[in-house]
Structure prediction request, 960 residues.
Amino acid sequence: MADIATHDTDHATDHGHHSSTGLSNNKLAMWLFLGSECLLFGGLISTYMLYRGRVQNGPHPSQIYDIPFTSVSSFVLLMSSLTMVLAVSSAQRKDDAKTNLWLVITALLGATFIGGQVYEFTTFYREGLGFTTSLFGSSFYALTGFHGVHVSIGVIMLLSLMGIIKKGKITGDKAEVVELIGLYWHFVDIVWIIIFTLVYLIPS
Amino acid sequence: MSTATDTHADAHEHGMSDAGYVKIAIILAAITALEVSTYYVDFGPLFMPALLTMMVVKFVMVVSYFMHLKFDSKIFSFLFYVGLGLALFVYITALATFKFFIA
Amino acid sequence: MATNELPISSSQSLGAVRRPVNTKGWREWLFTVDHKKLGIMYGCVAFTFFIVGGIEALFIRLQLALPDGRILSADKYNQMFTMHATTMIFLFAMPMAAAFANYFLPLQIGARDVAFPRLNALSFWLFLSGGLILNASWFLGGAADGGWFMYAPNSGPVFSPSNGVDFWVLGLQIAGIASLIGSINLIVTVLNMRAPGMTLMKMPVFTWMILVVQFLLVFSLPVITVALVLLMFQRSYGATFFDVSQGADPLLWQHLFWIFGHPEVYVLILPAFGIISEVLPTFSRKPLFGYPFVVFSGASIGLVGFGVWAHHMFASGLGPVSVAVFSMATMAIAIPTGVKIFNWLLTMWGGKIWYSAAMKFAIGLVVLFTIGGLSGVTHAVAPSDTQQTDTYYIVAHFHYVLFGGMVFGLFSGFYYWWPKVFGKMLNEKLGTWNFWFMVIGMNLTFGPMHILGLQGQPRRMYVWTEARAGEGFFNLGFWNMVSSIGSFILAVGVLFFIINVIKTTRNKERAPLDPWDARTLEWLTTSPPKVHNFDRIPVVHHLDEFFHRKYVEDETTHVMTQVAKGEDLVRAEEAAADADIHMPGASYWPLLLSIGVAVLGMGIIYGTPIMVVGALVVLFSSFGWVLEPSVPEPIDFDSPSHDGHTKEIASLG
Prediction:
């Protein structure tokens, strides 16, 4: 029975023998997933690039983009990557209080970004760019909306993780779980780095 | 049974200090400021190459340092960069057949 | 005891949801995370869809047997060929390969399960949900009717107003998520769960081919996901992606679809290549000729497979440069494929060939796939392809590679591994009947289609007319009739297999532990394998480890002499069994989560309230999943075993 207790903290190396690569199953899976996500966002970005200049109704990209505003929210998301990596490094030092603090800040920054996106979408909508208005509208909302959904899922994961840590009900290695969510979070950030340049800064 | 914890300790050892992360973040912020400045200042023919270069630099910095790929096992880099490479290849090729880069 | 000091477990805190460990009967299957049970379930469901897809094919051939067929209306005919292809590819071929992969991959690498057993169960249930949603459309307003590639804008709301395409999009989306999760799971399994000593270049070729396939899936599925999402947004929420009046480019869908679709054809064929790369050496009594070449050619087929998608679009006006580039790339892919064919031939060369049913199907694959491969090379030549596009010549080509190749490989696998999975031998005599009816039926069905196609009979037309059927040898009527008769001979062949399965199941006689004098690790255990696969995790020293434990090579003469029998080896392993074996515990969450996803999907067609319900189920079961410990707590068991030998206790999540 004692064996059960040791296994509880040990779900990276399975089945009583060490993993062949010495790496964690969970981390391998997360990196594979992120590799796969490259092709998902690649498809949405390409669709946008192909269609961004095709406007038969409604506003043209250059007429509605608010670069100063988007720059601020891009900065917010970029900084959330810093706070996330600080959370990971605190978790690896087993500093629970700091981990929690940085997770809260990361979630808040993420929520700020989402708030900014909601504001941006409503403004654009009022200025005449709906989801169905033009090819530009459809592909813009599909791409940035997909990214927004990813950020939102990240925020939910961060908040849930905090709750689970607080109640002491985490299953598996805590530092690793924080690290995995961190990888996802940084990925969402690098996708935005690309979107910010290709969608907003380079005019069609 | 200690492989998992060992690898973490390693990653941390070869990883960066918190001050290091802050430095990376400052560089990223500076590049972002430079990116945004292209909206106000005319960069002429350098506009596109400069923006794309800065984008790639930011991307690689986050992946290498914040996501630890620089310090982690090469297998992780392989899995991620194969996906990224395929994405670049298929989508750039597809856009090329639309004569996207000629117009 | 240490167990008393454990933190409060979630299974306690969530009250009602005790982990379904130690269940019996149907519950044991519903909540299982055992890769072998899931493999069998994949196989059963996939075979059922094979029958469904086969019946759809027979309807098509009945309609086309005579001029001006009246069996089906034009509309029903469209639904029939769309669903035939969709079912055969997504609901039979892929899951049947997943069945083999699930069952045999962990066994071949000496593991006790896959890396993520609960995710494995989730994959299966999501696949089943996707398959049911796809086929539910028959009863809810008509099935999809746009062809398996569902070209936009034809699949848009204007030209396809029924809900069929919506069901198709949703079903494929969900089945796609299933495959994506499955592929990540299997890659991690291969990378991380190999037995000590099993380096990558000591892995069986089947495992290698499955690994390549999972990489193809993990990087191609997101592309079709994008295409399906765009189409769904257009159909359900009025987006403009494929609306030509808004300036949309119809080729966007074609690119996205075929960037996925071409790797997909290797996803279909490579598992079959893997199977016969196990069968041919075993029944030739020789090691596989040029193992590294077979492995690397498989990997390079996978890689180059990502660079040839536009050869499906030669007739769409891509422009001469694109056509030339993709034409060359396509021809290049014939090289690694040819390498494989020669390796198989040289494996058989000089061997003591045992013509078992499995071997017959494997040889059938080599011959029939080569025919299909050669007609494939004729499509790589763009001018020739422009002539053949959308004719029955294409239909002939891909049925030779898919039926003659993939299906024959899978049947070879059925005969080879049946004694391993069920502990009983399939009848060899019925197997021979099965094989010959299928070979003759398949050649009669698809052979004439080469002639029909070159004569210009278009695909996807629900009738042909006597007036334009031509004269003499090239008369369309004669060859259409031959093809239709052939399809029924083929069906009789499949019927022989079903009879064989029923007969075998009733048979009481147990199969020997090593009936074929096999070569790889899955035979180093009982048939069927125990829950924990291996009594002792094998330590691997050779490629074909099991064979090298039975035979020793003389240093000077290179003659192999048998030193042990398979049975003895299995008994020796049993005698030296590990004391503590920890297996993953069953779980409710995979099933519940997949139900949530299915309901969420249906909400896209039937309205937001249903979507909300689905989303809540998804959220609830995700939390349940995360909070479920990787190990079942002692409280999950009615009577915990205290002797330290229990095999029910899990070690991973």
In short: Confidence is low (pLDDT under 50) at residues 1-17 of chain A. Chain A touches chain C through 52 residues (CB under 8 Å). The longest helix of chain A spans residues 135-166. The domain at 26-201 of chain A is CATH 1.20.120.80 (Four Helix Bundle (Hemerythrin (Met), subunit A)).
